[in-house]
């Protein structure tokens, strides 16, 4: 049985996510409801009590009658009520056939989804021949004793944390609107400083809704010195994984590196909450750049990060790329190419 669930069917969406063997907050109805860049939908293929569910954003391709599918910001990919390695091959094959029929019926040109580095989703999407190796992400193993974890820190990182201890920095957790606005100001300042695209800018309600969601555990943590907020982050707790969703440091405090102190404190909090990993993510465009090296200064646990980049209609895809005068063989790492934009992120936002 095939179901295409929309945001109007909140209870059904929640049923398939909450009953999955593993999922992250990126899969939830609430998180998809925050994204206005497309029509959110959850494709479900179901046989008896077993299912595979795949959330997407359906987007119009300007000046055409075609569409494409993309994913929300974060790590998504397909989920199932069974552990991926235990799903039978027949269900996976039938899921693929049903999904391909859906794509053709809906005039979909291409499909893009960021996959989840902790969920081993390859087996569910390998037959599409669109798995792309993006690079690595960095995680801290919270199962390690804290002293062993800190031995993995680079000397510069550990020194910065010790300076923060000596100075008397502390963590404040808050849902207060004033603190949310402080975080929004710091985050917006960071994005403007590094000339980020509008894609990474969010309005006030986005932050308020994330922190107050009843579908997942999202927390605002602020690094303070006396009464001054130096740095802040939004983190989520789902299925043993803490996601460092957004983080920002005031320009005036970049040289003091309060974000390093913050990461160490989050790891302590994660242990108290029984979490298994703190996921820091990867570099800019998931390259092993300065941002990646900053994150790697906390841990040598590097996860493979992949995405699904599947062209459904090659002739239409090529036509769209050609229409924009883009070289099909370009080295630009962007999919789909006909939506390529200049995008720049840097370490400057979190020191």
Radius of gyration, in angstroms, nearest whole number = 21 Å
C-alpha end-to-end distance: 49 Å
What characteristic shape results from the CA principal axes?
globular
The residue-averaged pLDDT reads 91
Contiguous low-pLDDT stretches (5 residues minimum) are: 341-351
Number of strands: 13
- Structural class designation: alpha+beta
Number of helices: 11
Oligomer: single chain
**N-to-C order of helices and strands:** EHHEEEEHEHEHHEHHEEEHEHEH
What fraction, in percent, of the residue positions are helical?
Answer: 25-40%
Question: Main beta sheet, described?
Answer: 13 strands, mixed
Strand fraction equals 25-35%
Describe the structure.
- This protein is 32% helix and 28% strand.
- It contains eleven helices and 13 strands.
- It has helices at 10-18, 29-33, 89-105, 122-125, 146-151, 155-167, 177-193, 204-211, 258-272, 290-296, 314-323; strands spanning 2-6, 39-47, 50-60, 67-70, 79-80, 108-114, 131-141, 170-174, 217-225, 228-238, 241-249, 277-281, 301-311.
- A hairpin with a 6-residue loop joins β3 (50-60) and β4.
- The chain is globular and about 60 Å long.
- The termini are far apart.
Salient structural properties:
351 residues; alpha+beta; 13-stranded mixed beta sheet; 11 helices; 32% helix; 28% strand; disordered C terminus
Briefly say what this structure is.
By secondary structure, this protein is of the alpha+beta class.
